[in-house]
Amino acid sequence: MKEDFLHHVWQYKKFSLQGLESVQGEKIEILNAGQYLQQTGPDFFNAQIVIGGQKWAGNVEIHIKSSDWYLHSHENDPNYDNVVLHIVWDHDTQVMRKDNSEIPVLELRHYTDPKLLESYNALAAAKTWIYCEKELETINSFVLENWKERLFFERLERKAAPILQLAKDTGNDWEAVLFCFLAKNFGLNTNGQTFFSIARSLPFPVVRKESFESENLEALLFGRSGLLDGDFEDVYPRDLKARYAYISHKHQLPPVYVDSLEFFRHRPDNFPTIRLSQFAALYSSHQNLFSKIINCATVEDIYKVFEVQASAYWQSHYTFDKESTKKRKALTASFIDLIVINTIIPFRFAYAKSTGKEVSEELVTLLQAVAPEKNAIVDKFRSFKVSADSAYDTQSLLQLRNEYCAHKRCMQCALGLELLKSN
């Protein structure tokens, strides 16, 4: 048993309220179970409880055993001085206040229906992947869809947090913020943080001025990445190196030190050279990318914005000075989908949040038009008959698995609570 089960039992009063007595023999009447804030300190705040005819207003702490009070060192924490009732499953020791008065204890096991515990144990029994995998297909579709929407926005909140922080750090320079987070997305998981550092090192007014010539912007990005260090045989990298030296001097750009870019674990089309060139092409093609990203009404509109390709040199190269078979290296639909999922939707959510605009419905509609992601987690859910027809579905399922199932948070999950109720 975990404490979250007892939190659920107490919060929703899933126990008999008749004839309640503390282990000390005093009658208990619950007027208000308190607020479940899930933060530092007691589990429930501002409860109102009558104990032995005396009305108390204070906090409630919940443990599996009474002795857990001392195991968690609550006797030394002033946050617990105002606990008026100690809820436990098993009472195994007295718990005393600093003034040596005993804290009243309610032993819940005497008042909880054994069938509820059986249902909880069945839900929490070890399974191959997640606890409720065999019961998932029995979940009411209304409950599932509502929970998926909640999960989606939880995930969006997490993704929007660093965007909002950078907006704050840059004085709400949303153009610069978009530049940095798009760069991170172009770098994918392996090079994303390095791409972000490269973008962060460039004042956006410099980017704006130099983006009228794609070679200048490419020189800036390659130069800041360290890829122009060394000597080259081909004319193109030598030209980029000279441009970078000139632009750096013109704008008085300080040196930047970033991690080395990773080539080894990528397919050639995902090499950082190709992605940096495509990123430069994007910004040289759109002088007002921020407004376009904000105002795109459909996914098709977004695809049109991202119809760019690497510059001519990279059509026959993957690295400097090493020629390859000629190939047009445009952004693929699947790559643009990743940009929509990981940057555009969170960015639009963050921007709307900062301006007080409500965009929830339009963001859901946009992502429902994007193809579902392909990964092992989504495949597992499909094997349990949970469909994923769009990126909106897959983002919700990823949040469910990573933030709830993986941490065994069944009592905070709408699906877990539904199964507990139905069982």
Automatic annotation (TrEMBL):
This is DUF2851 family protein. The lineage of its organism: Bacteria, Pseudomonadati, Bacteroidota, Flavobacteriia, Flavobacteriales. It comes from the Bacteria. Pfam families: DUF2851.
